[in-house]
Amino acid sequence: MRPGFVLEVDERTPPLLVHQGDGVLLERFPVGTRVVYPPLPRPGVDAVGAAVDAALAAPVGSAPLVSLLRPGLRLVLVVSDAGVPAPRMRGVDVRARLLERVLSVVAAAGVDEVRLVVATGLGRRRSAAEVEALVGERVFRSFWPQRLACHDAFDEANLVEVGVSGAGEVLRVARPVAEADLLISVEVVQDPGVGGLAGLAAGVASYGSLRAARSVSAAMRDAAGWFSSPTPVDSPGSVDSPGSSGSSGTVGVSGSPGSSDVAGGVAGGGSRAVLGRLGGVLAGAVPVFAVTATVNAAVGPAAAGFLTGREWEWSLPDQAMALAAARGLDRLGGWARRRVWQETAADYAVTSVGAGDVRAVTEAAWALVEAGQRVGVEGQTDVLVVGSAPFGVHHGSGPGDAVLGAHGALAEVLGRHTGRPVVREHGAMIVYHPMAARFSQVHQPSYVDFYAEVLAESTEPATIEAKFERRYATDPWYESLYRSSLALPGVHPFHRWYEMAPGRAYLGEVVVVGGDRVVCARLGLRAASTLADALEIVSGSVGRDPSVTYLHAPPRLVADVR
To answer: 33, 232, 457, 545: which is deepest, by most CB within 10 A?
Structure first.
C-alpha cells in the first residue's frame, strides 16, 4: 500500500481533480496550496471464503460459533445496512458471502429458528431488490419476506424494551432481536469508529430510544470531544463499553457528526456516549457474536484509475477519462448525471475478516481501516478546501442535494481527523457543490418540506428542534411513505442538520463554489463562482495571504494533524 502524503502546489503542478456534487472538474490551485493525498487502496485478502471459515473456527475473545449453537436456539442475524460501503460494492456484496458461510454452520448445528434483520436504524428501509443484492440470491430466496425484513424504527407494536442504561436511557429494539437467544452481527466496516456495538444498537432501536443520541444538545456536547484528542478504543471509556462516558474511538472520525444512522454518532459526552451505553444494554440483554469484514478505500470501478490516482502519474487513458468525465457530466442534464453516480459501483477489496467478541472484532477492524486512511499533516491551515462526492451513507436515496451536500462537508469531511481538524478554529472552509434545491420526491419527501418550511423560518438547530421535529417525527404521512415508498423518515433532515452544528460553530466562514446563491443563503452559507472569488470572500477573516489546504478526496482520508 502506498501511503498518503502532502504536496505543495508549484508552477508545474497540473490541474487537480475535484468532485462538485454530481459533477467533476479539473481545478488549478494557487501556488503554495497544500494538497493532502490519501493512501492508495490497500490490496485484499487472497481468498475471502477461506478467511471467513478461519475466523468462524478461531474467533477472537469467544468460543467457536459452532459451540454456541444448539437445536431449538432462537437465532437472529442482524445485517448492517446497505448504505455502507458507499458507493456500493460491485458484484456480490461481501455480506452475502459472510451470511452463506455462517448459515452453513448454523444449519449443520441443527438450528432452524433463524431470522434476519437488516439494520436500517433511522435511515431508509430497503426494497426487495436492494435486500437481495445485500444478502445474496440464495439467502433472499430462503428467508424473504417471512424471516427476513428491514428494521422499522416506528412500529410501536413490534418494539420491545430490553433494558435501561445507567444514565436512564430506555432501549427498545425490534421484537425478533429482543426475543433472540443469540445475535450474530454481520457487518462491513469502511471507516474507523463507525459501527460496532453502538452501531448495532442504533440499527435496531426505536426512534424514541435514539432520540437522546440525535438531539441538538447531544451534538453540541460533542463539540469538545470532536475538537480535542480522543480516548483510545481500549480505554475504560471506550464507546462500546457498558456505561461508557464516551470516547471517539481510534480517530476523530469515529466521533464525527457525520457518523451514519446505523453506526454511531459523535464524540465526547453526547451522541456517541449515548449509543455506547445503549450498545452495552443490548449486549447485556442478548449475547452477540460478530462477523465483520473490512474493505479498502476504493471509490469506483478499477478501470477508472483517475479517481484514486495522483494527477501527475495519470496515464494518457487516465487523462482522457478525467477530461471526458468533466466535460461529459457537465453536458448531461441533472437527472442523467445523478443516474450515472447512482449506478456507480466500486471494486473494493476485502482486507480482513474477523469473528467473535463484538468489541474485540470491532476494535481490530477500526485499527486496520484507520491505518489504511491516515495521513500526517503538519499544522492547521487558515482555509480548508474540499470537494463533495456524490456518494455517501445518505446519498444513495437521492441526489446530492443542498442539505446533504452541506452535511457531507461540515460533518463528515471536517470530522475526519485524529484530534484536531485540518483547519484552525474560526478559519474558513471552501466547498465545491452546486447547492441546488432538488430532492427526491420518492425518497426525500421530508427534505422538501424541511427546506421549504423549516429553513425558511430558522437555521438555528435549537429552534428547529423545539418547534418542528416532533411534528415531522410523528406525521402519519411521512410514516406511511417510510413504510410504503421506502422514503427517509420525517426526522432524517433534522438529525443531519444537528450534526452540522459543531462544525458551523467552529468555523468562521463557509463558502460554496458553484453553489446557487439563493439556496446557500437559505442554508446560512455564502456562494462564490470560482475558487478565486471564494478566497476573496474569506480574505476579510483570514487575510490576503492565508495558508490553504485541499483535502484530495475521495477516497477517504483521516488527517493526523500535528
So the answer is: 33
Say if residues 280 and 238 touch (Cβ distance below 8 Å). no
In the prediction, which pLDDT does 209 show? 96
- What local confidence, expressed as pLDDT, does residue 268 receive? 38
Furthest C-alpha separation in the chain: 72
**The residue to which cell 481510534 is assigned:** 250
In this structure, the number of other CB atoms found within 10 A of the CB of residue 456 comes to 10
- Quick check: 448 and 401 in contact, CB under 8 A? no
Sequence-separated (6 or more) residues with CB below 8 Å from residue 451: 402, 403, 437, 439, 493, 522
User: Distances from the Cα of 514 to the Cαs of 10, 49, 204, 339, 529, in angstroms?
Assistant: 25, 46, 39, 20, 5
- Cα–Cα distance for residue pair 85/393, rounded to 1 Å: 8
Query: 239 — phi, psi (to 5°)?
Result: -65, -20
The sign of the torsion formed by the CA atoms of 228, 233, 236, 238 equals: positive
261, 264, 265, 266 alpha-carbon torsion, rounded to 10°:
-160
Partners of 186 in the β-ladder: 79, 291
Q: How far apart are CA 519 and CA 511, in angstroms?
A: 12
List alpha helices for 299-353, DSSP H.
316-331, 334-342
Other beta carbons less than 10 A from residue 146's beta carbon: 7
Question: What is the rounded CA–CA span in Å between residue 8 and residue 464?
Answer: 42
C-alpha cell at 383: 482555509
Angle between helices 271-285 and 196-204 (to 10 degrees): 80
Q: pTM of the predicted model, to two decimals?
A: 0.89
- Tell me the C-alpha distance between 305 and 315, whole Å: 9
Q: CA-CA distance, 94 to 55, in Å (whole number)?
A: 15
Which residue type, as a one-letter code, is found at position 168? G
Rounded distance, CA 391 to CA 85, Å?
A: 10
Q: What is the mean pLDDT of each run of 10 residues along the chain (562 residues)?
A: 88 92 89 94 92 96 96 97 87 96 97 97 94 96 97 96 95 98 97 94 96 87 56 31 32 40 42 92 98 90 75 86 75 65 82 97 96 95 92 60 92 91 97 91 93 97 97 96 94 96 95 96 97 97 96 88 94
